[in-house]
């Protein structure tokens, strides 16, 4: 069975975006970009892969699922298929369909994730965000990869926007970087 991994960047105080959904306040740290390009190359958008010297091989994921707010910045930039090297699903109740045949709009993320996890593949499914979608998919999340940036936001979009639902994960790995950022990997207990 394939795993669902929530690979996300957060502030020290646990936010993944500003109150308006903007992520531009996160610093572009060379060591974290290097980590992503080397260890999780599929998380680099297709149009930036050459710039960040990504070799093109997917190491962990062949599929990405994201909320509309996560997908929206790409659309605003005229990019309809931000992860063309992956199967792409966007969860939305307001988008009827994607203008790009490589992106499928879905309304039932839990059913889709269960279907994707049941597929026979050595690569997993990447949950790219946002907080409400992560909250809805918490019962199916197998792994967390958290890039924590040395920034306090004060308020914004939480990593999980859901009811009180304690869910145990165990630390599998943590690495600190010279920039002050850390990357932690947790597995569901």
Automatic annotation (TrEMBL):
Residues 4-163 form the Bacterial bifunctional deaminase-reductase C-terminal domain. One of its GO terms (molecular function) is 5-amino-6-(5-phosphoribosylamino)uracil reductase activity. One of its GO terms (biological process) is riboflavin biosynthetic process. This is Deaminase. The lineage of its organism: Bacteria, Bacillati, Actinomycetota, Actinomycetes, Mycobacteriales.
